[in-house]
Amino acid sequence: MLYFPQLATGAGSQFPVTRRAVRRTVVNAAPDGRMVKLADAGAASVEWQLSLAGLTGEEWGAIESVFEGAEGRLKSFTFLDPTDNLLVWSEDLSQVTWVKDAGLELTAGVADPAGTTRATRIGNSGGSALTIRQTLEIPGWYQYCFSVWTRSATPGDAWLWRTSAAGLVKKQFKTWGAWNRLAYSTKVSDTSETVSFGLELGAAGVVEVFGLQLEAQRGASKYKKTASRGGVWREAYFQDDALRLTSAGPGEHSGVVRIRAGQQG
How does pLDDT run along the chain (265 residues), one tens digit per residue? Predict the structure, then answer.
């Protein structure tokens, strides 16, 4: 599988990055002059323009390698949207994409830090640590940041973790009566293409959570709500027949990369 590479900084892009949604409407003109308009869902797509500067030869070479593997605009590759949340159903933990250990009890409609009622209370009624997790088909060797807002009526503990073929890594965090955003940044030596991220509670633990988010970068950015679609695009294509590179000197390369995707995994 081809994946658009991360930069050496652990980021997937630099500013400015432009994301544009493209939609098409089919218009049928009747003989009597009436117009019937229908959205053409099959033609919907998203386009990104990545303006990259100051790249090393290795960084630009990694982009060129994917371009050559895709044979320019011909073949697809996987693109992790640097402007979006990679998780799906970030606020609906009842969806099947969230795998819950038996013994975890979920209560939706809880007050959240945004002033609405979109948070979820998670309670562990079991006698051991239990988890809720989501698995994504993404490169295990990338840098990721997994974040979530938490609050608990009494001080407690929660763990954020990631697991893949390379094993499990996790970090313990404290929770208390005020909303606090937890963020766990990880990068491991891992060749797998399936990675799971989850939240773990100890026995009898209760915590309220909001805004679960996963990003392919070092730190957490502003929360983005997702539903059935997240930021993992497995049918992405380059929009140009050639990559244009400008070099100001050794290790000082720049260029603009344009990507389009019309089908999301």
Answer: 899 999 998 988 888 899 998 876 777 777 777 777 777 666 678 999 999 999 999 999 999 999 999 999 999 999 999 999 999 999 999 999 999 999 999 999 999 999 999 999 999 998 899 999 999 999 999 999 999 999 999 999 999 999 999 899 999 999 999 999 999 999 999 999 999 999 999 999 999 999 999 999 999 999 999 999 999 999 999 999 999 888 877 778 899 999 999 854 4
**Cα atoms in the Cβ-side hemisphere of radius 13 Å centred on 78:** 19
Q: Could you tell me the CA-to-CA distances from 120 to 95, 190, 205, 211, 217 in Å, in that order?
A: 13, 32, 14, 10, 26
Which among 52, 48, 47, 46 has a CA at the least distance from the CA of 13? Answer: 52
- Which CATH architecture fits 99-215? Sandwich (2.60)
H or E stretch including 175? strand 167-175
Distance (Å, rounded) from C-alpha 251 to C-alpha 262?
34
Residue ranges per structural domain of the chain: 17-83+231-263, 99-215
> Where does residue 127 fall: left (phi above 0), alpha (psi -120 to 50 degrees), or beta otherwise?
alpha
